[in-house]
Amino acid sequence: MKLGFLDSIYNYADVYEAAVKVFETRIPSTTLERMTVPHLLKIPLFSKMLLRNGADAVIVFLTMLEEDAAELDLVHEKIIDLELDEMKPVYFCIIADSEFKDQAELEAIMEQRLGMIAEAVSKIQSSPSGLAGDIANQDMTNAMSMFGAMAAVASGDTDETGSTSSIGTSGTDDMTDLGSGGKSLF
User: Fold this and answer.
1) Which long-range contacts link 30-35 to residues 24+ away (Cβ below 8 Å)?
2) Among the four residues 4, 20, 106, 112, which has the most C-beta atoms within 10 Å?
3) Is the separation of the CB atoms in 106 and 100 below 8 Å?
4) How many Å is the maximal CA-CA distance in the chain?
5) CB count, 10 Å around CB of 179?
6) pLDDT digits (tens, 9 = 90+) for 59-117
7) How far apart, in Å, are the Cα atoms of 174 and each of 10, 135, 156, 169?
C-alpha cells in the first residue's frame, strides 16, 4: 500500500521518520511518499498531487495553533470534495501546540494518533465493512480520534492521552476558553 504523508513547514518538529516507523510496524507493506506544504491552504492541492501520483490514501500531519482553526475548516471543506472526486481518503492527525510541552510528548501523542490511523487504514485495506462495524461497536471517542474530527472542538477537549473532557463555557463564543482541559483542537 502506498500512502501520502503531508506535513507543514510550520510544524514544531519533523516527525516523518517516526511516522514511517509507526506505519511500517502496523502495516509492513506500506510505503510513504512525503510532501511538505508551505501553507495550510495548500493541503488540498498537495493531497490531490499525492493521490494522483498513486497514493491509496493521504495522512496529513499538523502541529498548529488554535488560531488556525478557521483556515483548517476551509481545508476540510475542500478535502471532502477531493475525497469524493478521487474516491480515496485523507486522514488528519492534528496536534495543537497546547497539547505538548516538549519533543518527547509530541512524539508520544503523534505515535498514538498515527497508530489509530494506521489501524483504520489496515482495516479498510483488509475489510472496509469491518471498519464500519468496529466504529459502530466501539466507543465514539476512539472513532472521533481516529479520524481527527473537528466536531470535537465543539463537543469536547482532550488531554495528553487523547481522552475527552467537557469544554467549560464562559457564556461567550470565544474559542480560547476551553475550561480546565486547556486549549486543544481535539
Assistant:
1) 30/1, 30/2, 30/3, 30/118, 31/1, 31/2, 31/3, 32/2, 32/3, 32/4, 32/5, 33/2, 33/3, 33/4, 33/5, 34/4, 34/5, 34/6, 34/7, 35/4, 35/5, 35/6
2) 4
3) yes
4) 50
5) 14
6) 999 988 888 888 889 999 999 999 999 999 999 999 988 888 888 888 899 889 999 99
7) 24, 32, 15, 9
Per-residue pLDDT tens over the stretch 124-155: 777 666 555 555 555 444 544 444 433 333 33
Structure pTM?
0.69
CATH classification (class only), 2-150: alpha beta
Residues 159 and 109 sit within 8 Å (Cβ to Cβ): no
In whole numbers, what is the pLDDT of the chain averaged over residues? 76
- The three grid cell numbers given for residue 6, joined into one nine-digit string: 503531508
Q: Are 66 and 95 in contact (CB under 8 A)?
A: no
Please state at what angle helix 103-126 crosses helix 128-137, rounded to 10 degrees.
120
DSSP-based helix, strand, coil % in the chain, nearest 5: 50, 20, 30
Contacts of 101 (CB under 8 A, 6+ apart): none
